[in-house]
Amino acid sequence: MSAFTLYGQTFNSRFLLGTALYSSPQAMVDSVKAAQCNIVTLGLRRQNPQEKDGQAIWSAIRDTGCTLLPNTAGCKSAKEAVNLAEMSREIFNTSWIKLEVIGDDYNLQPCPFGLVEAAEELIKRGFQVLPYCTDDLAVCQRLLDVGCQVLMPWGAPIGTGQGLLNRYNLRTLRERLPTTPLIIDAGLGAPSQACEAMEMGFDGVLLNTAVAKAQQPPIMAKAFASAIAAGRAAYESGLMVKRQTASPSTPTIGQPFWHQK
């Protein structure tokens, strides 16, 4: 699988894995290793290394050696997200941020207005912003206008496992933003769904629940990693065009004809 670049950094894996919801720090570490991912997400509110109750989780994440992508999970306003991002930069020593500004408590849909406002402010402050957004083309274009170099549209609401609910919008994003790194973030529940996203030309997949809540998280992480690699290889090699009529795969020229007496 070919490498890809985000904000000037090159990564060998196109699989980004979350570190929440695991039954234990060891289960999380084993899953990260099985996934062979280069980037892991973490939330300051749950894994504050300055607090004793998060020390074990923070130490385990740090020891993976992966690039850290702190998030602003739970924020409901641009101001709140910016403040949390500044705290994350100071504590985790990184200007990378997965920007989340939630607009609805039921489906955890990103707020387009707060998201753009926060992204613009964070970019002015020197952050490398990876916004969690919907598949709305206009919102995605606005995020690019304010300086985002990567977009992370959802496949479905967080934690639902519904897969790619709006394939038309997702294909439109890929076609209209051909040079922008696009990472499917949230809603995937099965490796086959991740493979489909990669076959559509998306650059990567970020997920958490589908691995963390599996009966055997490390095995599921490995399954997703294989599916992501397979989907990318299929996209790069060129998928066949769908046809309305059958076309024989075995040539008929030169075959003998058998005549019944």
Description:
- This protein has 261 residues and is α/β, with parallel strands linked by helices.
- The chain has 9 helices and 10 strands.
- The strands form 3 sheets. Strands 5-4-3-10-9 form a 5-stranded parallel beta sheet. A 3-stranded parallel beta sheet has the order 6-7-8. A two-stranded antiparallel sheet has the order 1-2.
- The model has no long low-confidence stretch (mean pLDDT 91).
Characteristics of this structure?
261 residues; alpha/beta; TIM Barrel; 5-stranded parallel β-sheet; 3-stranded parallel β-sheet; 39% helix; globular
Secondary-structure class:
alpha/beta
Global Rg: 21 Å
Q: Specify the CATH class.
A: Alpha Beta
- Our estimate of the beta-strand percent is 5-15%
Low-confidence stretches: none
Query: Can you summarize the main beta sheet?
Result: 5 strands, parallel
- Overall mean pLDDT stands at 91
Q: What is the topology, as strand order, of the major beta sheet?
A: 5-4-3-10-9
Shape: globular
Q: What is the string of helix and strand elements?
A: EEEHEHEHEHEHEHEHEHH
Oligomer: single chain
CATH-level-2 architecture: Alpha-Beta Barrel
Cα separation of the termini:
56 Å
Q: Give the CATH H-level superfamily.
A: Aldolase class I
Write the layout of secondary structure elements.
Elements: E1 4-6, E2 9-11, E3 15-18, H1 25-35, E4 39-43, H2 55-63, E5 67-71, H3 78-92, E6 96-99, H4 112-124, E7 128-133, H5 137-145, E8 152-153, H6 167-176, E9 183-185, H7 191-199, E10 204-207, H8 209-212, H9 217-237
Parallel strand pairs: 3-4, 3-10, 4-5, 6-7, 7-8, 9-10
Antiparallel strand pairs: 1-2
Helix pairs in contact: 1-2, 1-9, 3-4, 7-9
